[in-house]
Amino acid sequence: MKEDLIARLKSFGYDVTEDDDWLLLFDGQKVENYIFDYCNISELPRALYPMAVDMMAGEFLGYKKAMGQLAGFDFTAPVKQIQEGDTTVVFASGDAPERQFEGLIKTLARGDAGQLSRHRRLVW
Q1: Least packed by Cβ within 10 Å: which of 35, 73, 80, 123?
Q2: What does the alpha-carbon distance between residue 87 and residue 12 come to, in Å, rounded to a whole number?
């Protein structure tokens, strides 16, 4: 699972280093325990595997952002238009890129409650 998590983080533009090993392990255990407790199961179903990897990636990126360790991420607004004569620069409108990234992190970390519920077992 660690290799898939590293590949998923790389797809978001984050290069994992050896310093990240402990946090990757911690997030992996945290997400697995959440899924096991929520669903009352002891093994991760194959259908939940991609969601678990996304949840781990979201947790990891959220911690890194909160600690100010997301070096290399550029959250500045992209330039939409540049005009040289009389110098006009227009920035892209809409949500700020940093807010969009935070929304992505929240979506990843939260997972899909409907998908989790389909694998839930009753406790007696």
Answers
A1: 123
A2: 34
Q: How far apart are CA 44 and CA 36, in angstroms?
A: 7
Backbone angles phi, psi at 82, to 5 degrees: -130, 135
Spell out the SS3 assignment of 39-105: HCCCCCCHHHHHHHHHHHHHHHHHHHHHCCCCCCCCCCCCEEEEECCCCEEEECCCCCHHHHHHHHH
The token pair that represents 44 in the structure block: 């991760």
Q: Between the CA atoms of 107, 108, 113 and 116, what dihedral angle is there, to the nearest 10 degrees?
A: 170
Q: What percent of the chain has pLDDT over 70?
A: 79
Amino acid (1-letter code) at residue 30: K
Residue type, 83: Q
